[in-house]
Protein 1
Amino acid sequence: MDFTLTPEIEALRQQVRTFVTREVIPLEAGAANYDAHENLKESVVAELRAKARARGLWGFQLPKARGGLELGVVGMAALYEEAARSPFGPVAFNCAPPDDGNMIVLNKILSEPQKDRWLQPLIDGKVRSAFAMTEPDGGCGSDPGLTYTRAEQVGDKWIINGRKWFITGAEGAQTFILVAKTSEDERKGLTAFLFDKDQPGWEIVRRIPIMGPEEHGGHCELRFDGLEIPDENRLLNVGDGLKVTQIRLGTARLTHCMRWLGLAKRCLEIAGDYVEQRMSFGTPLAGHEGVQWMLGDAAKEIHIGRLLTMNAAWKLEQGDFARKEISIAKIQVADTLHKAADTAIQLCGARGYSKDTLLEWIYRYARQARLVDGASEIHKMVLSKYYLQEKQEFFRWGVGASSQWMNSDTG
């Protein structure tokens, strides 16, 4: 693939970078801008979103007909990375999880009337959403087959009973995608549904405290006790719950990588500025060979992650599922984010460990990267399965049209 950006995407990338530098990063230093969960207050977010929309920087991943920019996955990779130079950038442009992944899957599978009801409010930034799949007490995590939350059909309604936990964004969400068990079929036993926060028959049990800073709406435990969902709010066919999950997670895993790369680059920005100024034994820290090794190694890993992410984005745009490429990128970039944060803290010393910079925030946030949307070990298992099936074909190159050189007379 060609790793160059179109002039249009590059111009937008520069605009996003400028917006984050001027409008978002300055907010990080103001304690009054934060809520109790180490995220920006909703009032601050609302102001940022209004500014972003006014400048045409909204919904990079969404259809133009519905108010987005419809840039494609490659364009998303370039802009998401810039947006996430601050952890609060993606929410300003409406490309933060879990709304980002939810909007992408709903745009792919809903009818137009359904999009008017469920998708458009998300695109407009009027509501937030959550994706409810993971369960406690032996329920599903990486193995969807362990789902025990059940949906029983009664007439033209489905009755939901069960529990979910670590549901990102649930406390502030209006729109929910729910995956529940509808039969014992190993491949077709799950079905996905839409429901609204205001429907009776469910509750948020608690907002689960976590090690790191939280997304808006936290990570919550939910209980379902007779929630009624009309059959018209079923997603795809009965038994297509796993399909809905796969459609959502494919691109969503990669958008995580795009954002994490922005955070990793920000770590090096902070560390780079510091080591150029901080003196040690008569020389700036940047002049010491050991410091150069650390910075160079982290920069190398970030660039590897960028190439892997962009390659997977390109394959998705070509209509490929890119499952191997996404798994490889997810493993690499999750490790890289942690390495970049750890390296930056080490280089900044006590200042990096303090709250005078964003590094300790990013460090705690980074630990989840190797867990969310499939633990790194699960992705390695996926890659092993592909390798054992394909052997040397695992490493095959894509082949395009014949080149001018091949078609010429070289005799």
Protein 2
Amino acid sequence: MRDFTHSIDSLLGELDRHLRGAAKAVRAVFEDAPYEVLVYRGYGNASEVWIQGRVVEQRRVSPSRDSDSSLRNLLNTYRRVDSDPLPHSELLLGCRGMATPCRADDEGFFGGRIEVPAHAGEDSEWIPYDAELVSSPRAGSAARAIGEILVPPPSARFGVISDIDDTVIQSRVSNFLEAARIVMLDNARTRLPFPGVAAFYRALREGAARDERNPIFYVSSSPWNLYDVIAEFMELQQIPKGPVLLRDWDVTFGALAASRHLEHKGAAIREILATYPHLPFILIGDSGQHDPEIYAQIVREFPERIRAIYIRDVTRTPERSASIQALAAEVLAARSTLVLAEDTVGAARHAADQGWIRAATLDEVRDEKRADAGQTDAKVATPHGGEGGTGRAPAVIE
């Protein structure tokens, strides 16, 4: 009886400890916190830069770990989404020795295109900028942040604009409940890449000459609240660094509408193309949403600027394949190419045939594809790391 009573006492003591910890975490979520400045990677050229950031309450998000429970991930997701913005705050943006005053909007977002003085002889791809909050009584120690701006070097032969969800990272966006589960209950260390994508993107960045340093931009309709998760995921998976352009999700039924997705992604791509008028681009996406339609419209608006469109076939239905084939005909008429491929290897093979990447990197893409799929020990095993393909060759319309 004494042992039983001791066990009960130990259990109650352990339960009390956990409940106290949970209560403390909940109080931390709901208490007012100092504001912090979040900065996102920008991009630019010799005369102007595109900067984006946000002022919100400190989110107190804990660093991700492999051992994090679903409950901890859910709490971190809640903190990312629930942090109140500071509307109409005053900031000072500094870049290349010039300070520019800036005012945030009603959701705490700030930035845009800013003219900057050119720096002769600047060779770095990434230049720093800083954003400082100057008008809040609740400004905390994180009221100033340092970000980065991508300036493609003269060696770049082309740029790449890639979707993220179901193109780089497995998100299951065509299944709302599954996508919601992944976003809420996973973290940067438990989310999964599409097999081989890191090696393919590294090959595109290196180019045929191996040192081209071709810029890569990532455009998605995911909310800015998930920026840190996506950035950390890419770093962990060794996916080349680039600006990540997301969007604000209003809490309305219209926030998830297809028209909002089309408008956001199309506008972001047009801004990038306008910033680098002499640089051709490769567009990469998937068949699950509206990437083929968006990219075909971009080809029509910017003839001769798009070298190829790579679409990962994640739906694999006859109806969707037929609609993409029809779009491919329009892309061909605009003197570009659309490639519908089951996997990363098919797209990489086409890029190698065109002389955009080195043929030797195809083996690297294949090896990483097998590692991501858990078929080798080259990477830590990732459950459901890849979906089996049929071995069908990529469909190329050119």
